[in-house]
Amino acid sequence: MGSIQLKGVTKTFGNTSVIPHVDLSVEDGSFVVFVGPSGCGKSTLLRLIAGLEDTSGGEILIDGRNVVNEGPAKRGLSMVFQSYALYPHMSVRNNIGFGLKMAGLPKSEIAAKVEHAAGILNLTPYLERKPRELSGGQRQRVAIGRAIVREPKAFLFDEPLSNLDAALRVQMRLEIARLQKSLGTTAIYVTHDQVEAMTMADKIVVLNAGRVEQVGSPIDLYERPDNLFVAGFIGSPKMNLIEGPIAAGLGAKTIGARPEHITVTTDGTGTWQGTISVAEHLGSDTFLYVDVPNAGTVTVRTQGELGLKAGITVGLTPDPARIHRFDNAGKAIR
Amino acid sequence: MATRQSTFLGRILAAPSILVLFLWMIVPLGMTIWFSLLRYNLLDPGNESFIGALNYEYFLTDPAFFTALGNTLLLVGSVLLITIVGGILVALLMDQPIFGQGVVRLFIIAPFFVMPTVSALVWKNLLMHPVSGLFAWIATSLGFQPVDWFSNAPLFSVILIVAWQWLPFAALILLTALQSLDGEQKEAAQMDGVGPFSFFFYIVLPHLARAITVVILIETIFLLSVFAEIFVTTGGGPGLATTNIAFLVYAQALLQYDVGGASAGGIVAVVLANIVAAFMVRLIGKNLEA
User: Where in the sequence is the domain holding B69, given as residue range(s)?
Assistant: First the structure.
């Protein structure tokens, strides 16, 4: 069991309010990702849940019990840190088993649990090594092993993949998601990478300047962003946000069209006409950066290779059903 | 040094300084070895004669030698123990966020900058003096008999003075090591439910191992040759109670005017220091490997 609820949680450092007011509920067994730009308070929120920072106000309920006045160890959560924070002088075995040893478990039980965790994470051949003798991905797995061996109510991940190279990141992303599903333990995962958020999450919490901008499933956020911030943050390449007369014509302050929802034509038809300034050819896709009068640069994603080059004039037609409209306050008009 | 040419050039350029350093070392050593093989007494100048290993025989069979050797090892060992245990405690205190941290650190480091003769004089006359010292005043005001430190516990008194001088050095090195402990490791330990004592013994102490090794090696080098503190306070006495090897060599040369015997003692001291150094490096040197 591991449901977590935040009720009116606030955090201030001196006079600066880092987290003005957050209400949130994390269901048992779900994988929730906190995503947002640097300094949005996502790590602080995670540390508040972990108990590594004191809340300035509000309640944190774990399985219905308010834990704000309890120390980190009492909360029954475990955390994977960005730097892994392995104990450098201890072997992998002792690193994983240290928390259990501190909890006073008998040696035989610790050994069995450590072996079991190492088996799940393919660490069995490395149990007697020191962290410095391991690769980045292996260290990452030791950190995860240290988290799972305590059978916590929830895992907390603080940007765990940011120290790995791109290929390994994709692989570990998959492993963490698979592991979480098979253990069925609640997980809260902090990242600034919206691709990680989209691929791993059951539920994404988009944070900006300490406020929750939107909570929802990845596809919810992609298809129905509540506001300009979420619209611009989720999706890669970014959504085109167009202001001025074009938006006014559709009764909005700003309109948004995703690059993949714009059709390109070269026969003079199309809602907008523009000149290609840069074309990025990826083989599977082509990203076009098109200068459109009154709209600025519009990014377009086309499938396959169309043989388009810079300087060519093209017509662009956004899918009318998939145009997002936003009012003066940046809220979505539906 | 990438190419053969630059390696060659590097050697040529480094050669003069290496040569000077070599001469700087070998000439005094060679002269000392030569003197140690002579009958050479300042009371009988001009009558030097070659006597082989006789000086060594006298020095090594002198009961004073074994007393001095014991005193040296006791002095080094005790001071190391006091400065490292005390240094860790002081470093832990200095690591706490307190008001006036900078000034406190400066005060704690101050003893290291006081020259040994001065600090020995201060301890002898202002603190440990049985009539006018601070300790005697404290003892009498509490109704106790004042302790005559240098008569009753001479070696312990010297150890106390030397330890007082070296404590700041140990504390300073250990403090910097303490501050390099990764913050996320502390938090990981918190999540693991590690109490303060377990945290110290399982996380902090292993982290300090390398710094402790450095402190032991550096302090040993200097503590083997403690002289000023002994000269100023006890003059090696009472009897031989505070005579270490360095002081014994001095006494041989400049109190008995026996340059040959002193040189033999000096060479013995060099050999002993190397034995201690080899022992230390074997024992704890593996901590220094990355």
Answer: 56-288
Query: In terms of Cα–Cα distance, which of A7, A22, A8 is closest to A210?
Result: A22
What is the side-by-side order of every strand in the sheet holding A65-66?
Answer: A16-26, A4-13, A57-62, A65-66
Count of domains in chain B?
Answer: 1
Residues of B in contact with A73 (CB under 8 A): 190-194
Among A231, A252, A274, residue at a domain's last position: A231
Mean pLDDT, chain A, as a whole number?
Answer: 88
pLDDT tens sequence across A264-278: 888 888 888 889 999
In this predicted structure, what is the pLDDT of residue B1?
Answer: 52
H/E stretch holding A113 reads helix A107-120
User: Which of helix, strand or coil describes residue A173?
Assistant: helix
Q: ipTM beyond 0.85?
A: no
Mutation site for A-interface testing, chosen from B192, B213, B287, B289 by largest number of A Cβ within 10 Å: B192
pLDDT in the model for residue B289: 62
Any A CB within 8 A of B207 CB: yes
Does B185 lie at the interface with A, CB-CB under 8 angstroms?
Answer: yes
Using CA atoms, how far residue A93 sits from A77, A104, A123, in Å, is 20, 16, 9
Residue with tokens 């600066």: A16
* Whether pLDDT at A291 is above 60: yes
DSSP summary character for residue A202: S
**Count of domains forming chain A:** 2
Per-residue pLDDT, B18: 94
A52, B198: Cβ pair inside 8 Å?
A: no
Q: What is the number of residues in chain A?
A: 334
Q: How far is Cα A158 from Cα A149, in angstroms, rounded to an integer?
A: 18
Structural domain that includes position A111: 4-231
Which B positions 55-74 lie with beta carbon below 8 A of chain A? none
What CATH number does residue A28 fall under? 3.40.50.300
Residue of B nearest to A78 (CA): B191
Does residue B103 fall inside a structural domain? Answer: yes
Inside any domain, residue B8? no
Q: Which residues of B touch A81 (CB under 8 A)?
A: 184, 187-188
- Give the residue from chain B lying closest to A148, CA to CA: B192
Q: Please report residues of B whose CB lies closer than 8 A to that of A152.
A: none
Which of chain B's residues have a Cβ under 8 Å away from the Cβ of A83? 182, 184
Among residues A205, A231, A257, the one where a domain terminates is A231
- Tell me the mean pLDDT per 10 residues along chain B, length 290: 82 93 92 85 77 80 84 91 93 83 83 87 83 82 80 85 91 90 86 85 88 87 85 80 83 78 85 83 68
A151–chain B Cβ distance below 8 A for any pair: no
CB contact under 8 A, B190 and A71: yes
The answer on A293 and A164 residing in a single domain is no
Token pair for B149: 């430190």
Q: How many CB pairs under 8 A join A and B?
A: 60
